[in-house]
Every structure is written in C-alpha cells, then in structure tokens.
Amino acid sequence: MSRTKKPSIPALQAALLDWFDRHRRVMPWRAAKGRRPNPYHVWLSEIMLQQTTVVTVGPYFVKFTGLWPTVGDLAAAKLDDVLTAWAGLGYYARARNLHKCAQAVVGQYGGKFPADEASLLGLPGIGPYTAAAIISIAFDKPAVAVDGNVERVVSRFDGIEEPLPLSKPAIRAGAAKLADGNPRPGDFTQAMMELGATVCTPRKPRCGLCPWQNSCAARKAGNAEELPHKLPKKAKPAKTGKVYWIVNTKGQVMIQKRAEKGLYGGMYQLPTTAWREAAEKPDGHPAFVSGHGLAPIGPSVRHSFTHFDLSLEIWQGQAASAQLPVGGKWVSISALDRYALPTLMQKVARLMIGGG
Ligand code: SF4
C-alpha cells in the first residue's frame, strides 16, 4: 500500500459532497436535492441495478412505478405480470424475490420499509449491500454500502494492491473510514457511487476532475487504471442444447412455462432440450416435437450465464399435431412480448421473426 499524506476525513467528505452537489445526475429514482427519497423507489432501483447499468434500468423503473406506484400495489400484483415486466433485465431470481419482498413489507411492516439494517436483511432478496444502500439513501442513516464503483474508488484512493476478492475487507475498512461521521449519509453513499460511475471509471479515470485528486494514492503512483487488481477468473463450462421454434397452422408459436424453481423459474421459454456439457451425451429431439418436419436453422444462439456459457441450435418445425409439452401453450407471434421470455429466448424469437 502506498504512503500518501491525506487531508482530514471531514475535509475529504466535504470535498466529495460539494462535488456531488454540483455534479449529481438526475435519475428517475433519485430525489431532488434537499428532498427525502421514497424508500420504495430506493429499494426498487437498488434491486434493478444489481448486475445492470443505470441506462438499462431507467425505462424498467419507470414502467414498474407506472404499473405499481406503491409497494402495496406491487405486492398485490400477479407474479406472472411482474416477471413479464421484468423480462430482459436478467437474473430473474431478483424479480421473484422482489415480489416476495413487497409482500413481506406489506405483511410484516404494514407497507413501510423498516429503517434498520437487521430487519431489512430479513427480507427476501436484500443482502448486506442493498440493506446498507437503503438505510443510508432512503433513511439518511450511517451505513457503508460497497458496490463495484465504491470498490474501485477505495482501491485506488488507498492504493490497495491486493487483488479482489481478497481485498474486500481492506476496501470495506477503507470505505467505512472515509464515510465515518459524515453529516449527510444518504448523499455520501450516492456520491461515492457517482464518483466511481462518472469520474473514477474502470478505464481512463478522469483524475483531473476528481475532488480527491490531491490525496489519491493511485493517482500519485500513476497506476489508477490498473486498480483494482483481480484474481483471474476460472474458465466457465460450455453447455449446448437445442431450442425449438414450432409454428402451427394458425401461425401460433409453441411456448412453455418453466418450473417455478431453478433457472428462469416461472418464466416462459421456447421449448428446449436439457442443456448439457460437452462431455455429456446430447439429447435427441423430445417426443412432443417429433413429426413436425424439423430443420436446423443456423447460426446457433449464444448466451453467457454467471456459471456457464450456452450455445443453442435452433430447430424450426411446422406443427403436425396440437400436442404440447407440460406447461405448453400456443400463442400468436405478435403476442409473444406479453409473456415473460428471458433475454436468451427473446434472442431466438428475434432471430426467427426477423428471419421470417
Ligand atoms: S484521483 Fe483518480 S484514481 Fe483517485 S479516486 Fe479520483 S478518479 Fe479515482
């Protein structure tokens, strides 16, 4: 770790908050300066923003708050409708937990989010980061929320050379020290995230615009862009399978609801075989598509999941019977967007519809 003489913590906090007051971006979930945020909006945006960018989340947040203006409205919604509105945002377990959490907030807390970390951590889908973000941003109470942006800022500011994830305790301690005793916990949390998102960016950090430029260890060492170091990622296994675009004489396409539990639980898909690793024997066509004049359509559609990469061969067929798989139904192609199809399946549908 580099040795750098830093100004006092209150002076650093004041510089960052002053920078935030001048440069904060307008976001649909962010309260105007001096206004108290709506805890429902803070929670909803934090869940949506996990693994997803601000630009992608914007329209989804507006759609959700339009359909369900309060946490009570969301709790009363049908899970199918929530999954459909979520389709395309990925990591669908978040949508199921979102719905469960809304119901728990209504059932256990009368529709008001609790304002303490322990109670928030007891709610579905809320982990330490989200609880800290809600406590500080929604309730303006001290809490240290460390997301990827904050990890980067603190790693660089403190000159932490140890790679992630080993450096997480040091980063957390650094973040806690920087936040300690600050007079505006909600704004401070957002300011740290904002600095990481707009100035202390992964590539080409704009140190000349940074309120901490004169005290930053990485800037002095000239290695800002290299930090944080990361341990090499393990190669992901590759899986393959077949996916079916079967159309009947009415021009309807076959879709199938997945089991409630597991990957894409409760969502719709185009029927597929099991997804297998290269060492496993690939599956033949399932019985419910046999006799449909199947023909392969190239190229395969590819999708990257957290734990594996998938490549699906697309097979097209004309339905020779009305036979459907478990959970199957026929829907008109123009109505496909009313069903919660995950991004992978939307890619297949776009390819097929675009390809005629
Ligand atoms: S000076 Fe540069 S590297 Fe250091 S915190 Fe600011 S933007 Fe990041």
What labels would you give this structure?
3-stranded antiparallel beta sheet, 7 strands, 356 residues, alpha+beta, 4-stranded mixed beta sheet, binds iron/sulfur cluster, Endonuclease III, domain 1, 2 domains, Nucleoside Triphosphate Pyrophosphohydrolase, globular
Q: Would you mind describing this structure in some detail?
A:
The protein has 356 residues and is α+β, with helices and mostly antiparallel strands. It has 2 domains: 9-226, Hypothetical protein, domain 2 (Endonuclease III, domain 1, Orthogonal Bundle), CATH 1.10.340.30; 238-354, Nucleoside Triphosphate Pyrophosphohydrolase (Alpha-Beta Complex). The protein has 13 helices and 7 strands. It has helices spanning 9-23, 39-49, 54-67, 71-76, 79-86, 93-109, 117-121, 128-139, 148-158, 168-179, 185-198, 217-221, 343-354, and strands at residues 238-247, 252-257, 268-269, 276-277, 295-304, 309-318, 328-332. Strands 4-1-6-5 form a 4-stranded mixed β-sheet, with helices on one face. The chain has a 3-stranded antiparallel β-sheet with strand order 3-2-7, with no helix packed on it. Helix 8 crosses helix 11 (185-198) and helix 9 crosses helix 11 (185-198). The longest helix has 17 residues, at 93-109. It is globular. The N and C termini lie far apart (59 Å). 33% of the residues are buried. The mean pLDDT is 92. The chain binds iron/sulfur cluster (SF4). Iron/sulfur cluster (SF4) binds next to helix 9 and helix 12.
